[in-house]
Structures are given as C-alpha cells and as structure tokens.
Specification:
2 domains, globular, disordered N terminus, Growth Hormone, Chain: A, mainly alpha, MFS_trans_sf, single chain, membrane, 0% strand
C-alpha cells in the first residue's frame, strides 16, 4: 500500500510521469532572493509510528479512557482475595469466589461482545460496566456485613458482565486503520504492551491499597477506575466502529476457516501463563522467598511489555499467518530458559532473568495472533471474535494453574517448570496446524 504521506501524481500526468502539457518539467519557484528552490526527490519521512496513532482525532482520548477502565482488570481478583481472606479468614473461600467469577466471565464474555457488535460499544459497554460495578460493590457489602457465603458467589457472578475493554480498543484501531496494516500492527503492539503493564502493576497497586488502607480499598478503587474510564471511552463516539447489519444466517467466528486452531493456540498460550504463575510462586516458597514471587513474575510481564513496544515500532515482516507460528516457536524455545535456570542454578534471581528474557516472545506472539483474529473475523463480529480469543486465554490460565499446581505436588517446583514448556509445545503444534488451515488454502 502506498505511504499516506507520499504525494499523489498530478491529475494530468501520463503513465510515464511526464505532464500532458509541455515536455519539460515546470520551473522551480524562486525564493525571495531570486534563486530557484531545489526540489528534493527524497520521499517524505514518516513521523514516529506511535505518534501517528495518536495524531488521529479522538484516539488519545479513547486510549486514556480505555486504560483507566482496563487497569482494574489486574486488580479485581487480588483485591477480592485480600478482602475476603482478611475479613472472613478463609483463602479457600476467596479462591473459590474468584474462580467462579473467572468461569462466569469466560461464559458471558462472548455474549456481551456479540451485543457490542450488534448495538455498538457505547450502548452496551456503559450498562454492562454498571452491572459489573454493582456486582463488585455487592460483594464488598456481603463481605463487610457478614452475609452468608453463597451471597458472595451470587454477587461476584455479576462481574461477568464486564466488557472486554481491550478488545473494544483493538476494534477501534482496526476500524481506523483498516487500510493501513503497518499502523494497525503498531496499534496492536501498543495494546498488548498496555495489557502487560496493567496486569503487572494492577496487583501491586491493589495489594498496596488493601494493605495500607483497609481490605475493601482495592475493590473500591477498581470500581471507580473502571466506571470513570468506560464513561470517558464511550464518550468518544467519533472513533467508535459502525454497527454492521447482521444477517440471520451469520456464522459464529468459531466456524470461520482457520479460527478453531487459532483459538486453541490461545488456550494453550493461556496454559503457559497460568502454570508459570503457580510454579514460580511454589519455587519462590521452596527457596524461602515467597515474598519475592510477585516481583519475579513481574519481570516476565515487563519483558513482554517492552518487547511489545519495540515490536510496534518496527515494520512487520511478512503476513501475520506466517509470523504467528514463528513467534510461537520462539516463545517455545525461550520458555525452556526458566526450566534450565531452576534446574541448573536453583537461584531465584537467575530465574528472574530467565523469565525476563522468556517474556520477550510473548507480546509479538499475542500481536500476531490478535492480528489474525482481526483478519479472519467478519467485521460485523469483530468484538465477539477477539473476546473468544480472550476467553481462550482465560480458560488456558485456569487449566494451566490446575496443571501447574498438580505438577508441583507430584514432581516438585523445579520439575514443574516442564508444564509451561509442554503448554508452549502444544501452542506451537496448533499454530503450525492453523497455518495449514489458513483461509485461501
């Protein structure tokens, strides 16, 4: 595609480049001192790629609103665990409640996204966030005033209405840069980096608020940020994707060629994240430094976020359906580093360095995967398609957490690092199979 900043040829130019008038080029205009201007033949240089994104009217505003609304996604679970365990004194109850919310979100999320596609982001996101906020506040009140345990589950299930804010932001970029794949690549890279930093800093902020103020502080702050952020985001109507007419026989994105193996690769990728978290906490605990587990895991997210920003500043090489299996292959190779660091050194700090490096393949893999979702999903179902990818990740995280915990119990924390390696291997096989099933073959 031609560069948007490259000047178009004159309307009266012939295919050979010679104007249809005189056979000589027009004389360059003179400067004030009478000397002719020297016309440069060098192409105009593009501005910084991220600056190009936010030069679009309304883009900066909807991005800031979306970041405010998305940041609590890394706060809700840890806030609920600290609040419930601190007031009720039961980590088992806290874990069961948050797990129920995760499963409910995986079930309800695609339906919420389908409503967003059908009626528009602003019309659905605002009431959905209101329902989610009521669920969080209901949980807070039930915990605070000693309501029966079952009410905690009932209240927290309402948080499943939370819309996929990251997916809605990606849908806006896909609409704004539908004819500019390079800019869309940069936008997807920025969104992935934002995800990593939100999930890296969110738990830290939540733990600080709950520990330094009162157990409910994290939940209250999360609700305030989510509601205020979505109101700012929804107010930017100029960048909102249009609602597409949907026929009665429209296929679910699950039936689009190439989508099932792609979504299964997201499931396996989630297995990496879930198992890595549990195994790292167990390894740190075995070393007597459980307090450092969060910081060590944050290094993996930091490596991914930094790689995402660098990846966005570079021009993508080749189509996304070819980049995706290559990125998954790199992620599989790098995921062996934590296993080697734990087995060969037993050092928590060496493990942290291995996680930092291993994380650098995560963002490019996710960017290529999300780009494929955008390309393969019909425009009228874009939010649904991306929410299905997130649902796959959440399901994989849940399965990975269970598999990692079981491996720790039976093999020990060091050997359990084989679980994320195995999950990465599954993701690679699925990505390769998806490449053979890509549309057009």
């Amino acid at each position: 595609m031609p560069d948007a900043l490259t000047p178009s040829p004159a309307p009266d130019a012939l295919p050979g480049g010679t104007p249809s008038g005189a056979g000589t080029l027009p004389e360059a205009p003179a400067t004030d001192d009478g000397a002719p201007h020297q016309t440069s033949t060098r192409p105009a240089r593009r501005s910084n790629s991220y600056r190009r994104l936010f030069s679009v009217p309304g883009a900066l505003a909807f991005t800031l609103g979306n970041l405010l609304a998305r940041f609590p996604q890394g706060m809700f679970s840890i806030s609920a665990v600290i609040m419930i365990s601190g007031v009720r004194g039961s980590y088992a109850l806290a874990g069961a409640v948050t797990a129920t919310g995760l499963v409910a979100n995986a079930v309800v999320g695609p339906w919420t996204a389908r409503l967003v596609d059908r009626f528009g982001q602003a019309r659905v996101a605002v009431p959905a966030v209101a329902a989610s906020a009521c669920g969080s506040l209901g949980l807070l009140l039930c915990v605070r005033f000693g309501a029966p345990d079952w009410t905690l589950f009932a209240a927290y299930v309402a948080t499943a209405a939370t819309p996929n804010t990251g997916g809605m932001s990606r849908a806006r970029w896909a609409h704004l840069f539908a004819d500019d794949p390079d800019a869309l690549h940069t936008a997807n890279s920025f969104e992935q980096a934002a995800d990593e930093f939100c999930y890296m800093l969110g738990p830290v902020v939540a733990a600080f608020l709950c520990g330094s103020l009162f157990p409910e502080a994290g939940t209250l702050a999360s609700v305030f940020l989510m509601v205020s952020g979505i109101l700012v985001f929804a107010a930017q109507r100029s960048t909102e994707p249009p609602v597409h007419a949907r026929t009665e026989h429209a296929r679910t994105p699950l039936r689009v060629r190439g989508m099932p193996p792609l979504l299964l690769s997201f499931l396996a990728t989630g297995g990496i994240f879930g198992s890595l978290e549990v195994v790292t906490v167990a390894f740190a605990d075995a070393q007597g430094h459980k307090v450092w587990a969060g910081a060590i895991l944050a290094l993996q997210a930091a490596g991914s976020g930094a790689a995402g920003l660098v990846n966005g500043a570079l021009k993508p090489t080749g189509p996304a359906d070819r980049r995706h299996p290559l990125c998954v292959a790199a992620m599989t190779v790098l995921m062996t580093l934590p296993l080697l660091a734990a087995a060969l050194t037993g050092s928590l700090f060496v493990l942290g360095g291995a996680l930092l490096i291993a994380g650098m393949a995560t963002a490019p893999t996710m960017v290529a995967g999300m780009t494929l979702v955008q390309q393969r999903t019909p425009a009228a179902q874009l939010n649904e398609g991306m929410t299905l990818a997130v649902t796959g990740l959440l399901g994989g995280i849940a399965c990975g957490s269970a598999a990692g915990g079981t491996a720790v119990e039976h093999w020990g924390a060091t050997a359990a690092y084989a679980v994320p390696v195995a999950a990465a291997g599954c993701a690679l096989l699925l990505a390769l199979y998806g490449y053979t099933r890509r549309p057009g073959r």
